[in-house]
Design goal:
The structure is a single chain. The N and C termini lie far apart (96 Å). The chain contains 18 helices and 42 strands. It is of the alpha+beta class and 806 residues long. A hairpin with a 2-residue loop joins strand 6 and strand 7. The chain is globular. Among the domains are: 292 residues, Beta-galactosidase, Chain A, domain 5 (Distorted Sandwich), CATH 2.70.98.10; 131 residues, Chondroitinase Ac, Chain A, domain 3, CATH 2.60.220.10.
Length: 806
């Protein structure tokens, strides 16, 4: 740069330059550098050497322009060495901005690259720059990053640490300490209990890689061992089940972010497991209990999704998509990482592989890679009550049931993202098939951002249909935020038992998020889904909507919506093909069976509300909002119309995944003849359904109830999910019981405690417990009516299983 150009820049920058000595006393060196380090064992020294060799740092790179700019910037600082470690100069006026931090980190990287290439004076200038940053604590004074700032929190520390290979040992120690301070690395040294209150998904994903570099590339072996031990401790401690809506892991295997279950953000598992894998085979390996919690979390995410022989098309329900409908439902975990986790588990137990996880791997990827692992068929029903969800999987499909609560949102609506997603999990029942979005009837054209999908109609949901798309957006605009929760209800979730399961949800819709975001429709419903033998029997009662909204807003229960594609078959209604452009309106006097283009069958008994079936082209806005381009799709769909502002509407229907028309006709016939499911009680606050082939009765208590006569269960003192099987020949009774209501008690915003449910279930006759005696707090007593009362405390949505005999 010519002198006059340099002076012009200097004058321009004059207002933002100042001596940096004012910052020198603001931060001490990190306390971790002052503590007396422990001695390094021979094993640890060998392990450190292996780490440094395996994860060797690359020489920093920079282009000519970056190097020239960096040298000019160093000149602008007017650096002056005072002694071997102290350098003064001009720097930033006041607080450092994020842009200045980015530029500073880039300057360090470019000067390191130039020093490596040129040596001599450039190397001296590089050391001068570093000593200036260190003696004035400049890196420590960069504002702490938001962990969700995925650019800066990853890039700035990476640029700074890229200089390590060019540093001498003294400067390496100082640089790693400064970056650890910037990244709040002191968290790694907290107790497990303290870490439990601070666990953050973004921190694990974005920051952990930097902290690993800081640990192993500190040339002081004692400090390196100390930091690596803290790093391992942190990875283990973060697997603890965090309280309330905090990140990440919960007791049922779900992963939280944004205060709710959010598979889409669980790409943090990728970083987590990668670095657990780096520690295996060493004295720094993670703790066994931490591994078991991590294993449960990863397996749970796979259990929510369809199977695949690769990492492609492994999708879970759109009801779990967060703010990325249809595009955000892929499992963010790879086959390679699952293999790493299997090795981590094996290493902890002193064997090559964790064969239990190997069995799951073989099942999920349809392989026999782990030949010694026991064969596993993970088909069945799974409950995730920290998600308010039930998952039923069989053969080549997965059915997902979900509903919001006061704390667990069902749809996350952001600025120009998921603008029409308030109905994303409104008591939904989705059936997903192997092969991805298309075989499941979901839109696949990401360019259109799902334009062409009717946002009023998620499969299985009960909703108020908006003819005006503007009204379906929070605030009726493209920007307002909204998390769809219930207003007061928390009874939503599932009970898994043997090869069957029960989902129940009582819902009252909230229209506010900080302030009112919608014209209230006061939608409410109670619904249950009883899943057994590859079928799902749905009931809904107490369906109601009211308000000052227009009279063309119907309330409906939506059976299915299928975007037509090469993977879809023909829509069949009572054995007849429905062609494009056709619409059927079927009244209450007629039962109907349908096979949707995805091969999911439906049977709707007579007495139903008006059934609408359509197969036609529809044009709708994309998920980005009204300002984005609309899309068109050919769609098959069906829904039960409950009318405008209904009171006490109801429904029941049978869903049969992966069925051919001939099979569905036969199943419909059996159901009409009363050979399959029988509705024993259909009340606003109580659903009882019996499945005759296995003599299994399912009870959904939305409220306490007494005086029952449908089975062995006579009463429940609380809301509850119950399933019973009575063996008349052996006088044996088997019960499965849980309350998905976590009874959240709010402490402050996003912080709440679960409370136990004191359960009391009355059983007809006198019984004694033969299995399940180990259930915590289980007691059994006789009442004045000569019946048996089973009591226990139900916690965190967990089930209990009890066997009794006369």
């Amino acid at each position: 740069m010519r002198l006059k150009d340099f002076l012009r820049v200097l004058i321009f920058c004059g207002e933002i330059l100042m001596p940096f000595t004012a910052f020198a006393d603001m931060h001490d060196y990190p306390a971790m550098q002052e503590q007396k380090p422990e001695k390094v064992s021979t094993v640890q020294k060998k392990e450190l050497s292996a780490f440094r060799k395996k994860y060797k740092l690359s020489i920093p790179e920079a282009n000519d322009r970056e190097i020239e700019n960096a040298k000019n910037q160093v000149q602008l600082y007017q650096l002056n060495r005072i002694d071997d470690t102290t350098v003064e100069g001009n720097a930033f006026n006041g607080k450092i901005t994020l842009q200045q931090a980015r530029d500073l980190a880039k300057t360090v990287r470019a000067m390191a690259a130039a020093a490596h290439i040129e040596g001599g004076k450039t190397k001296k200038d590089f050391n001068l720059l570093l000593d200036f940053l260190f003696s004035q604590n400049i890196i420590e004074n960069i504002p702490k990053f938001k962990y969700s700032n995925y650019n800066d929190v990853r890039k700035v520390p990476a640029d700074l640490l890229s200089a390590l290979p060019i540093c001498d040992d003294r400067r390496k120690i100082r640089l790693t300490a400064a970056v650890q301070n910037l990244l709040e690395g002191e968290q790694l040294h907290l107790s497990a209990e303290e870490i439990r209150e601070k666990i953050n998904s973004d921190y694990i994903f974005n920051v952990v890689p930097h902290l690993f570099i800081c640990a192993i590339h500190n040339p002081n072996d004692e400090l390196a061992v100390k930091e690596l031990s803290a790093f391992s401790h942190f990875l283990s401690a973060c697997t603890q089940y965090s309280p309330s809506g905090y990140d990440i892991l919960k007791p049922d295997g779900t992963g939280f972010h944004h205060n709710s279950h959010y598979n889409g953000y669980m790409y943090s598992y990728k970083t987590w497991v990668e670095y657990m894998g780096r520690l295996k085979g060493t004295s720094f390996r993670i703790e066994k209990e931490a591994y078991l919690r991590m294993r449960k979390a990863v397996v749970s995410e796979y259990l929510m999704a369809v199977r695949s022989d690769s990492d492609n098309h492994r999708i879970f329900g759109n009801s779990m998509a967060g703010r990325h409908p249809f595009t955000g439902i892929g499992v963010n975990f790879s086959r390679e990482l699952l293999e790493t986790l299997i090795e981590v588990g094996g290493d902890i137990d002193g064997i090559p592989h964790d064969l239990e996880l190997g069995s799951y791997y073989n099942y999920f990827y349809k392989t026999k890679k782990y030949k010694n692992a026991p064969e596993l068929n993970a088909d069945g029903y799974y409950q995730f009550n920290f998600s308010a969800a039930g998952v039923y999987r069989k053969d080549n499909w997965v059915a997902v049931m979900r509903c919001p609560t006061t704390n667990f949102w069902g749809g996350e609506l952001y600025n120009k993202q998921n603008r029409f997603g308030r109905y994303q999990s409104h008591g939904t029942l989705e059936v997903l098939y192997e092969g991805g979005l298309s075989p499941s009837g979901y839109p696949t054209d990401d360019r259109k951002k799902n334009g062409g999908w009717d946002w009023n109609m998620m499969p299985g949901s009960t909703t108020v249909h908006y003819p005006d798309w503007q009204e379906l957006m929070p605030g009726q605009n493209d920007a307002d935020r909204f998390d769809q929760k219930s207003s007061t209800t928390n009874f939503a979730g599932a009970l898994a038992w043997k090869n069957c399961g029960l989902f129940g949800a009582a819902f009252d819709q909230d229209d506010k998020w900080g302030k009112s975001r919608y014209e209230p429709t006061n939608l409410k419903f109670c619904k249950s889904v009883f899943a057994i033998d590859g079928m799902l029997f749905s009931m809904g009662t107490n369906i109601e909507a009211k308000g000052t909204y227009p009279d063309d807003y119907i309330t409906a229960t939506n059976l299915f919506q299928s975007v037509m594609s090469k993977d879809c078959k023909t829509l069949i209604v009572d054995g007849q093909k429905i062609e494009k452009g056709e619409e059927k309106i079927i009244g209450a006097e007629k039962s109907v069976w349908i096979v949707a283009p995805t091969t999911t069958g439906y049977y709707i008994p007579e007495g139903h509300d008006k059934l609408i079936i359509r197969h036609n082209e529809q044009e709708t806005p994309s998920s980005a909002g009204m300002a984005a381009e609309f899309g068109k799709e050919i769609v098959s769909k069906a829904y039960l119309e409950h009318g405008v502002k209904p009171e006490k509407s109801a429904y029941h229907f049978l869903t049969v995944p992966a069925v051919m028309p001939e099979q569905m006709k036969e199943i419909a016939g059996k159901q009409e003849a009363g050979a399959l499911f029988e509705v024993m009680t259909e009340q606003d606050s109580l659903h009882i359904v019996k499945y005759h082939p296995t003599s299994t009765t399912a009870y959904t208590f939305f409220a306490p109830a007494t005086g029952l006569t449908c089975g062995t269960v006579r009463a429940s003192a609380t809301e509850l999910l119950v399933m019973e099987q009575f063996d008349k020949n052996n006088n044996k009774l088997e019960l499965a019981i849980c309350n998905p209501n976590l009874r959240p008690e709010t402490i402050h915003k996003n912080y709440w405690h679960t409370k136990a449910t004191p359960m009391a279930v009355e059983l007809q006759g006198k019984w004694k417990v033969t299995a399940g005696k180990d259930v915590p707090g289980l007691t059994i007593e006789q009442n004045n009516a000569g019946n048996t009362v089973l009591k226990a405390k139900l916690t965190e949505g967990n089930p209990i299983y009890v066997t009794l005999e006369k």
